[in-house]
UniProtKB/TrEMBL annotation:
The lineage of its organism: Bacteria, Pseudomonadati, Pseudomonadota, Alphaproteobacteria, Sphingomonadales. GO terms for biological process: carboxylic acid metabolic process. The keyword Ion transport does not apply. Belongs to the TPP enzyme family. It comes from Aurantiacibacter rhizosphaerae. PROSITE patterns: TPP_ENZYMES. This is Ubiquinone-dependent pyruvate dehydrogenase. Residues 4-119 form the Thiamine pyrophosphate enzyme N-terminal TPP-binding domain.
Length: 571
């Protein structure tokens, strides 16, 4: 019996393992949404398609499985763009069904007609039209396979009238998800081992590409007395119960993480594509190992570039290297790491009941949140508090917009994570700027019964932008935000809300917020003058901040300079 293309597409999506479709219904996908309604898929109706893409990405990043977005022609599908870009850069396997106008009108600048392929092929692994009904299952299946195996976005473009076409659907196309292993050849492995043996001090710099190699990295670090530095994205996978971990490199990192790379004779960069060249060690030997050969040497000059998966390569390397006797390099960085941790803890202490530092909120949440909680943060300062003040224990999960760096990803991505894991505590750490950008989807939490916990670091400013301007020595401009009481706003939407302005109010409010069964929002007025301190303070940064102080005084903003000093340096 023949089926409509809409039915075939939905069936292929189900067989690919998807459980949810995020979107807003309308004209060119009405036949598709009808087929979804007749299936086991759950339609998640969002208020803005961008939020739907973030949610799909949050779900797929956490599960590793396929999720789906569906958009109408023209503006409907275009609204997904930023969220789809986020999914692709995060490596989340997401399938977008992007519809277009009827084929009879295509090519004539019909209202809402958009060349979806030109839009989406630049940030997807697969982007193709269904040009004939007989292609429907084949195209969707190959799109899903590409998203799942290449870890990113696939796009299937369907003209609205194509959904109503029929086909016998006789060919049974299947999805394959092979998992090959890969390592450098024997000669390359011998060269790598010789470099390790010749180096007095070795450090490992591991990224998310080494997420499955924690045990192998630890065994290597034990044998050659090497500290391990990790990227921010690798925190949840490589930090837990790892005695060789000394933290993070980069502007969001810590002193031990930076010095472990600077002081090493040899750095092994493993599954790491950290983008900021200035944080790689100068004039040192760097060996880079990555599964993607195009990544080799694109961030920093390297001495040796090898292709291999982290787990297999490190397992093969271990018996080839000699054990090192001196542990001075490792011990020095471990000692500094403990000092760094103590510093984070001290930053989170609150001695002024009339003031709430954001670190105080993060430290308290770290102690009160579940051991297997999922945390999703907005980009900006809330991301810093997550990465520095929340502990990874092997059960907790973390998601940030570290590659795309987009606003508004926080609670939207957390929606998908909560739908994927309804029995887990999922916490969205939001800035007031990020939350308000897609604030309409607070209503989605209520309509779709998503019991998400949202905390707002309410500082009435685009905090990270303000900090960037001040570090440049500029007086900040256009960063101030006029905000409502977010707790009252949440209550108007049907969400339980708590508003906190003083430190002694925070603990009881946070306890009640975490206990609440349904969606809940905790609005915390935090210090607006908070600086995000880099792991090392350069003279130029001090000079730039001082220059801001001078300019702010001349601009009549003396009170802000006093607050900046009091709230960051005099506590």
């Amino acid at each position: 019996m023949s089926k409509t293309v809409a039915q075939i597409v939905v069936d292929a999506i189900e067989k690919a393992g998807a459980k949810r479709v995020y979107g807003i219904p309308g004209d060119t996908i009405n036949h598709f949404t009808t087929a979804v309604a007749d299936s086991n898929l759950r339609w998640v109706g969002v208020r803005h398609e961008e939020a739907g893409a973030f949610a799909a990405g949050g779900e797929s990043y956490m599960t590793g499985e396929l999720s789906v977005c569906a958009g109408t022609c023209g503006p409907g599908s275009l609204h997904f763009v930023n969220g789809i870009y986020e999914c692709h850069r995060n490596g989340a396997p997401v399938l977008l069904i992007a519809s277009d106008v009827a084929r009879t009108e295509s090519g004539f600048n019909f209202p809402q007609e958009v060349d979806q392929k030109k839009i989406y092929e630049q940030h997807s692994h697969f982007c193709e039209y269904i040009s004939h009904p007989s292609q429907a299952r084949r195209i969707v299946t190959k799109a899903a396979q590409t998203a799942l195996t290449k870890k990113g976005v696939a796009v299937v473009i369907v003209n609205g009238d194509m959904f109503t076409e029929t086909d016998d659907d006789a060919m049974d196309w299947e999805i394959y998800r092979p998992q090959p292993i890969c390592r450098p050849n024997d000669a390359e492995m011998a060269e790598l081992a010789a470099l390790v043996d010749a180096a007095g001090k070795v450090s490992v710099y591991a990224g998310i590409g080494a997420r499955d190699a924690r045990e192998e990295i630890m065994a290597f670090c034990e044998k050659v007395k090497a500290p391990m530095v990790h990227t921010t994205r690798a925190k949840e996978f490589l930090e837990p119960s790892n005695p060789y971990n000394v933290g993070v490199n980069g502007i969001l990192g810590n002193k031990a993480g930076v010095e472990a790379l600077e002081d090493a004779d040899l750095v092994i960069s493993l599954g790491c594509d950290f983008a900021y060249t200035q944080f790689y060690p100068d004039a040192k030997k760097i060996v880079q190992i990555d599964i993607d050969p195009t990544h080799l040497g694109r961030r920093s000059a390297i001495h040796l570039g090898l292709v291999g998966d982290a787990k297999t390569t490190m397992a093969a390397l271990l018996p080839l290297v000699a054990a090192k006797s001196s542990g001075d390099h490792l011990q020095a960085q471990q000692k500094q790491w403990q000092k760094d941790l103590q510093g984070y803890q001290k930053q989170g202490e609150e001695h002024d009941k009339d003031l709430i530092h954001p670190q105080y909120v993060a430290n308290m949440m770290d102690g009160k949140a579940d051991d297997d909680a999922i945390f999703v943060s907005d980009v900006g300062t809330s991301m810093v508090w997550m990465l520095r003040h929340l502990k990874a224990n092997g059960k907790r999960r973390f998601l940030n917009s570290l590659l795309h760096g987009t606003m508004a990803n926080g609670f939207s991505s957390a929606m998908g994570a909560k739908l994927a894991y309804p029995d887990k505590q999922v916490i969205a750490m939001c800035g007031d700027g990020g939350l308000t950008m897609l604030m309409g989807d607070l209503l989605t939490l209520v309509q779709e019964k998503i019991a998400l916990k949202v905390v707002v670091f309410h500082n009435n400013t685009l905090g990270f932008v303000e900090m960037e301007q001040r570090v440049e020595g500029l007086v900040d401009h256009f960063t101030t935000l006029h905000n409502p009481d977010f707790a009252k706003l949440a209550e108007a939407c049907g969400i339980e809300g708590w508003h906190v302005e003083n430190a002694d109010q925070l603990e009881p409010a946070m306890d009640a917020w975490l206990r609440h069964d349904g969606p809940a929002l905790l609005d915390v007025k935090v210090n607006q003058m908070e600086l995000v301190m880099p792991p090392k303070i350069e003279a130029s940064q001090v000079a730039s901040t001082a220059l801001f102080g001078v300019r702010a005084v001349l601009d009549g903003r003396t009170r802000e300079v006093v607050d900046l000093l009091r709230n960051n340096f005099l506590r």
